[in-house]
Amino acid sequence: MLFQHIIKKAENNPKKLFLIDGLGALLSAFLVGFVLVQFKDYFGMPANTLYLLAAFPIVFVFFDMYCYLKKHKKTGIFLKMIALLNLQYCMVSMGFAFYHKDTLTTLGWTYIFVEILILLLLSAFEFTVGKRLTRTS
Known about the structure:
Layout: H1 2-12, H2 15-38, H3 40-43, H4 47-69, H5 75-99, H6 106-136
Helix pairs in contact: 1-6, 2-4, 4-5, 5-6
């Protein structure tokens, strides 16, 4: 099965997941904090909310880079932590989406759902690899 093969490869080099997550967080911060702000009328979410949402992935970038660059024996625990942080970001994003439901456009809802879908998949993957790593160490 493809998913199991990818998980096995990630187990052999789990730090790459932090790099992937960090680059994704950087992209998310740019999209939410710059692109969506520039086109806020098309998405329907106020700029101050978008700036607040962009702060989360910026923090994740620093956490991911720390985990990627630092030598430690807690990779599995840190992978589970970033997975949980990503899930919390999903909940916060959805909370803001419902708070602004009267102004959020179809494009805004689409962006939120696509970002959440990507983060759910990534979080499940990170958590699975993190769980396997903590079992073997």
